[in-house]
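Allow me, if you will, to draw on your knowledge of protein folds for a short while. The matter concerns a single protein, recorded as an amino acid sequence and a row of backbone structure tokens. Could you please explain, in whatever detail you think fit, how the structure tokens follow from the sequence? I remain grateful for any guidance, and I place the record below:

…
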Amino acid sequence: MLVPPSSTKASPKSAKEKKASEERIVVIAAIILFFTLLWVCAPTPYEFNATRVSAAKRQLIQDAQLDLALNDILEYNVARRQMRRTNTVDIPEPLWNEWVPDPSRFENVEQVLQMTGTNGTVIEELFYLATPQIIDIQQNGQLKIKWNSKLMIYFLTVPIGECWMYGRCHKHHYFVRNGNLYVHSVFDWNQQTLEMTRVYYVPAKNLLDHFFNGYH
């Protein structure tokens, strides 16, 4: 009696299992690659220098006060008013990378640092000293921002509370009001919500150079 040869065609079930197995391999490979790159690119250990960071914050506040005092000079006042009248979508591109922190106008930053146990860490330095750069402005005024700091890589390794950088519980809203850039941040996890706002300005001299002295 002849026995028919076994079929070489995979059953639908075995094909599905093979596809699932291949997908698992791809995911595992991606995870291994991610952690390998993280290890290779791992930053040197960070050491918080309270004296240096505090001095930098005081200097930023002093600079902001001096810049505000320039409003008493007519040409600087006019340049500032020109910036305030400028719609978000019309902010000149040369000014996109000119934003400076004004810690005196920050709200709830210290509370967030204390509540998450990140005061005296790299997170404190980033919150206060990192400078934002606009990289795109949508027609509806929505902003895309990147942060100029060599310390940004630490955001991948240090959580804020239980929020990791780029996680769903870590959100930012960027908007320009009266010529100032506002960064409103929300950290939301385990039914706990923390919010803070940071404010950035373009120095009056930079505005004057751009609007009236032909700076491009």
Remarks:
- The mean pLDDT is 85.
